[in-house]
Structures are given as structure tokens and as C-alpha cells.
Amino acid sequence: MRRQIPARLPIGTTIAEAREVSLELGGTPILDGVSLSVRTGEVLALVGPNGAGKSTLLSVLSGDHAPDRGEVFLGGEPLPHWSPVETAMRRAVMLQQATISFPFSVADIVAMGRSPWYGTPRAEDDENAVRAALETADITEFRERVFSSLSGGERARVSLARALAQEAQLLFLDEPTAALDLHHQEAVLQLARESAAADDAVVVVVHDLNLAAGYADRVAVLSHGKIVADGNPRNVLTAELLTEVYRHPVEVWPHPATGAPVILPRR
Ligand code: ADP
Ligand code: MG
Fold first, then answer.
1. Atom 13 (ligand 1) nearest CA
2. Quick one: three-class SS letters along the chain?
3. Is CB count within 10 Å lower at the N or C end of the chain?
4. Where in the numbering of this chain does the ABC transporter domain appear (predicted)?
């Protein structure tokens, strides 16, 4: 197996990019000419209505699904250039639905995140990486538990920990906060910020627009398979755009202390 171990890319480098990517599934266009770049040192929030194509776009960027048209780059190379192991050394993915049918323990599952480094010098970090990931995801107390015995929110944190243990410079998180309480939602986004501050790139799908506004450096809005806005949260998260995209009247107010947009659906 060919294995080119990645060097860490400096901050501000484009680590992943989709260029004019289109994809049809079951005869329906799901992604339609999507271009998006992801840079090290930034948290990119991907938002948009149910069915907009967010998970599909993540699967294309992460190399789990080849597009019909367009190109995808990872670590400066066309994605098909890398073997599956080389891809896994460069990006980790927390999927929206984690289904694990065998009775694996939490610690076993998190340790699976280390598999790309098997047989490389970085395998020496396996134990530390697993311990740190369990700690960061606040699941150390569950380490011996069987995955299927955990609650939805606890399972989500195990999936997160597995992705963290992989220690790739690019992290894709698909609705990591969907099942989480307020404390753990904030903790996940804070973690994303800290990772980005350490030169990682984090792409996070969230439905809570206030989490996106409060934590993301950039927000990309996907609607019907197209990127309809991409930029600074203050410029992107406008009442006009959100009202149209979500087909519900939305108000946006500047936070009195920080000026960050506060998004409120009209009730
Ligand atoms: P999101 O994550 O934004 O909610 P997805 O990327 O999961 O949306 O899905 C986008 C659209 O693609 C949805 O309408 C979904 O039903 C459709 N879709 C996903 N997978 C398939 C498939 N295998 N065949 C047909 N349609 C699919
Ligand atoms: Mg999805």
C-alpha cells in the first residue's frame, strides 16, 4: 500500500476544494455546479434547508462519493490521486448517522480513528490520541460501555471522538450538534474554533444559525444543490437571504455586545 504521510499545511492554505461539482442521484440533480474551498485555520459552517445537499457535498469533498462532473482537490492534489489510506490521513469525517452493529466498546470505536496511521511512526501516538479524544468529547466515563447502550447525544460524541482521534488536519462534521444539549453544542463549536486556531480546517454542518454566526469564520449557504452565499457570517446571514432560503420570515439583529448576527424566526 502506498502511503505518503502528509506534512502539516501552513495556516491559510487551501486544503480542500470543489470546482464546479455536479452530482445526480436517482436521476435528480443533488449538487449543481458547486465550487467551495476550505482553508486551514478556518471554521467553515455549511448551512441550508433539509435536502439541500449538505451531506452529499461533504461526501464529495471527503472522497466518499465521486462527482459526475467537476473536480475535487485535497491537500493540493486531485482527490483521486490519493489512496484511501492517504485520504484518511488528510481528512476525518463525522457522519450524520453513525450505525455500528457489532457490540464494540466506546474505546474500540474511538481507536478505529487511528487506523490510517497503522504501521507508520505516528502509530506511537495512538494511545495519547485516543485518550485526548475521549477527554475532549467528554466521554471518558463511557470508555468501556457498548456503543449501542448509549443515548443519541452520547453516540454523537463517540463519533466525534473517533474523528478527532484520527488527527487529520481537515475535519468534516455533519450535524455534530443535532442530538446535543446546550453545553455540549457549545463545546463542539468551541473545539472547532480551537482546532482552527491550531491550523486545522473544520467544515461543520449546523442547523442552528446562531451557532454558525457565533463560531464560524465563514458561512456557506446551500440551497437546492447550489451555493447561494459564501462569506463572512455578518454578510451572509441576512434577513433577506435566510427568509428566502428557509421559506419562513427571519429577523436578524446585531448582538448588543459583539455585533454578531442573532437570528430569530418570526413567530
Ligand atoms: P442535506 O444533508 O442537505 O439534508 P443530503 O445531501 O442528505 O441533504 O440530500 C440531498 C438530496 O439528495 C435529498 O433530497 C435526498 O433525498 C437526496 N438523495 C440523497 N441520496 C440519494 C440517493 N441515493 N438517491 C436519490 N436521492 C438521494
Ligand atoms: Mg445531511
1. 51
2. CCCCCCCCCCCCCEEEEEEEEEEEECCEEEEEEEEEEEECCCEEEEECCCCCCHHHHHHHHCCCCCCCEEEEEECCEEHHHCCHHHHHHHEEEECCCCCCCCCCEHHHHHHHCCHHHCCCHHHHHHHHHHHHHHHHCCCHHHCCCEHHHCCHHHHHHHHHHHHHHCCCCEEEEECCCCCCCHHHHHHHHHHHHHHHHCCCEEEEECCCHHHHHHHCCEEEEEECCEEEEEECHHHHCCHHHHHHHHCCCEEEEECCCCCCEEEEECC
3. C
4. 16-249
